[in-house]
Amino acid sequence: MAESTAFREYGPLDGGNYEFGWKSDYLEAHLLSDVGKKRSKNEDSCLMQTPKEPGVLEAKGRLFAVADGMGGASAGEYASRMALQELSNTYYELKAGNVPQALRAALEVANERIFEEAEVNPVYSGMGTTVSAVILHGDWAYIAQVGDSRVYLLREHNGIHQITHDHSLVAEQLRSGLITEEEARNHTLKNLITRAVGIKGSVSVDLFSVQLQQHDTLLICSDGLCNMIEDDEIAQHLSQGSLRDGSRKIVERALDEGGTDNITSLTLRMTSAPPRSVAQEGGELVELKPRGLMDRIKRLFA
Questions:
Q1: Which of 22, 46, 233, 291 is most buried by its number of CB atoms within 10 A?
Q2: Closest C-alpha to 62, from 266, 198, 214
Q3: Residue that wins the pLDDT comparison between 73 and 25
Q4: CATH assignment of 2-301?
């Protein structure tokens, strides 16, 4: 477990498996990425970054992100890595705008760069990637979302909550009430996404904000994890033992269930109360509501 006030950690860099742990005075993070059982190469990418300069850290916060690339040959791997590198560089270089605005602008720049590369280089034609990114700024998490990777929040005595909305055909049908959760879970087109970074000249970015408290756990993951195991099982394993052990367990369970895709898990835990900060406008405010009795009964029988 690395301990530092500054780092920028990308992974994996060789298309294989990858693991990295880090902690600070009130925050612990663990990153784990696995090729899975069916793919020959890992096209997921992930990033943790804390600025060196105290002033930049105070203004911009810490960046964490997961990307799931798509495209022929090495295009998916290249797209996911390029998206996170451009996101990181652009976000911390931007001088104007608050955190949510800068996060959106950085993803828009990443989209432009990937699209332009695909236009001029036939090897990367048609490439794109999902991106789920989180900025931790004091006791607030600002989240940017494109695609069907996900961000979850696990809170003591409140269960697990999916913060982001999947940009996929099946998810849109589910939100419209056209299909049930069970039908969505087993749908043959559940991997068909409707939005990605780099496939068009412009991209629409969802933004969310949620206030954090001590013991909260955030999970950023690719669909190779959340398509394999249920949300409540994810919550069960992340609630027991260390963050490292919980992260390893949920990836292990995804492998047990078939490991049909690359699997990436980036977990963040508030080990003590995070420093207070002023909320910044720009994202949809997420307020968690305790699960009622009927909801718990429904999940039990499901």
A1: 46
A2: 266
A3: 25
A4: 3.60.40.10
Alpha helices by DSSP H, the chain: 54-60, 75-93, 99-120, 169-175, 181-185, 223-226, 231-238, 243-256, 293-301
Mean pLDDT taken over the chain: 90
pLDDT digits (tens, 9 = 90+) for 98-127: 999 999 999 999 999 999 999 999 999 999
Pair 27, 47: CB distance under 8 Å: no
pLDDT digits (tens, 9 = 90+) for 254-296: 999 999 999 999 999 999 999 999 999 999 999 987 655 445 4
Residue 16 amino acid letter: G
Bridge-based pairing state of the strands 128-137 and 62-70: antiparallel
Cα(252)–Cα(237) distance, rounded to whole angstroms?
11
Q: Where are the beta strands (DSSP E) in 123-262?
A: 128-137, 140-146, 150-155, 159-162, 206-211, 217-221
> What is the pTM (predicted TM-score) of this model?
0.91
Both tokens of residue 139?
């006791």
Q: H or E element: which one contains 29? A: strand 27-34
| Alpha carbons 208 and 215: distance in angstroms, whole number | 20
Beginning with the edge strand found earlier in the chain, give each strand of the sheet holding 140-146 in spatial order.
Answer: 7-11, 44-50, 62-70, 128-137, 140-146, 206-211, 284-285
